[in-house]
Design a protein that fits this description.
- This protein is an alpha/beta fold.
- The chain has ten helices and 13 strands.
- The protein has an eight-stranded parallel β-barrel with strand order 1-2-3-4-5-6-8-13, surrounded by six helices. Strands 7-11-10 form a three-stranded antiparallel sheet, with helices on one face.
- The protein is globular and about 70 Å long.
- The chain starts with a strand and ends with a helix.
């Protein structure tokens, strides 16, 4: 069995070829797609966060809206860039959204990815401390967030408050119990996957990672997952961790699919996500269901993960993306043993 969800980057463009031509279109269609995915039997609705771009950026209003409109499906991010986040304010937003969703949030966080602007986090009022990199700052924000999620009091109460206080130091409110165990780290390297395991976070491994061995992407990603699980076991956590991978997968079952994706998907590529980091990018899949199933059986990382996030072309509209999800659930998942 494997949990299957979708991951939307939430692009919009004023192009007449796009079904999502404004931010309002993307936000409302994201809610509609989550509702449709739940009705189809999918397990998760996940959203990417990018700043300074015509893409989804502020996750918590969207997560709360999806939580209010659905009842079963997991609702998450992949990922929130922690370099931009005030971890204390994020506690309040995340707690409120999780309570509205009745405990269904699965929050993916990370140090972020290459940006639209230079050092965009500076415009949000953040800068690395002395001797820190921006990645260090993102991980520091994440550690504060994780610590505060435990709900321990830390703030000295005012002796003359506006409202009566409970005894002792005060914590941030609202705290949603159990959310601490539903935080995921988007790891781009083996080392950060091991770090996430030690801190008790679930693992999100995306469609790119640092090229650490020169092997095929799915082989490196599978090794990353195994290193993460070994570190989790060594840390002695009491629960089983969760691991997700993201893929672009399209079953070609009608003329629309063949028109959009019939030329197939490229193999994994090598590139640089910054001037120092050589990265390997995962391949996508697009084929007739029988051929697609055979291709997916050879993907070692998908086999290692308990959760698969299908990246969807959101600009093609809710109806088509619901069809993409349904095609995988109907034609691929049973044959792969995921259902």
């Amino acid at each position: 069995m494997k949990k299957i969800g979708f991951l939307s980057f939430g692009h919009w463009t004023p192009s007449p070829q796009s079904q999502a031509r404004s931010a309002a279109d993307v936000l409302l269609q994201s809610i509609d797609l989550a509702v449709a995915a739940e009705e189809l039997g999918a397990d998760g609705a996940y959203f990417r966060v990018h700043h300074f771009a015509r893409q989804l950026a502020s996750p918590f209003p969207l997560l709360a809206a999806v939580g209010a409109k659905t009842s079963r499906i997991e609702i998450g991010t992949a990922v929130i860039d922690m370099r931009y986040e005030n971890p204390l304010y994020m506690i309040e937003d995340a707690g409120a959204a999780d309570l509205i969703a009745r405990g269904r949030l699965q929050l993916g966080i990370s140090r972020g990815s290459p940006e639209q602007v230079i050092d965009g986090w500076r415009y949000f009022g953040y800068q690395p401390g002395e001797g820190e990199t921006d990645a260090d700052m993102g991980r520091r924000h994440a550690e504060i967030f994780l610590d505060m999620l435990r709900g321990q009091g830390f703030a000295q109460p005012n002796p003359r408050p506006m409202f009566p206080n409970p005894p002792g130091l005060l914590r941030l409110e609202p705290i949603s119990e159990g959310l601490r165990e539903r935080i995921w780290w988007g790891a781009g390297s083996n080392a950060t996957a091991v770090w996430a395991a030690k801190l008790g976070m679930n693992l999100q491994s995306s469609t790119l990672k640092s090229d650490e061995t020169g092997e095929a992407f799915h082989i490196q990603q599978a090794a990353q997952i195994r290193a993460y699980r070994a570190a989790w076991k060594e840390a002695g956590h009491s629960r089983e961790p969760r691991v997700s991978v993201s893929r672009s997968i399209f079953a070609l079952v009608d003329d629309r699919d063949r028109a959009y994706f019939g030329n197939g998907q490229e193999e994994g590529q090598i590139g640089f996500i910054d001037e120092r980091t050589r990265a390997i990018f995962g391949r996508g899949y697009a084929a007739e269901p029988e051929k697609l199933i055979e291709q997916l059986k050879n993907d070692e990382a998908i086999a290692e993960a308990d959760t698969l996030l299908l990246t969807v072309p959101n600009q093609l509209g809710v109806a088509y993306n619901a069809h993409v999800i349904e095609s995988i659930l109907t034609h691929v998942a049973p044959a792969m043993g995921w259902r």
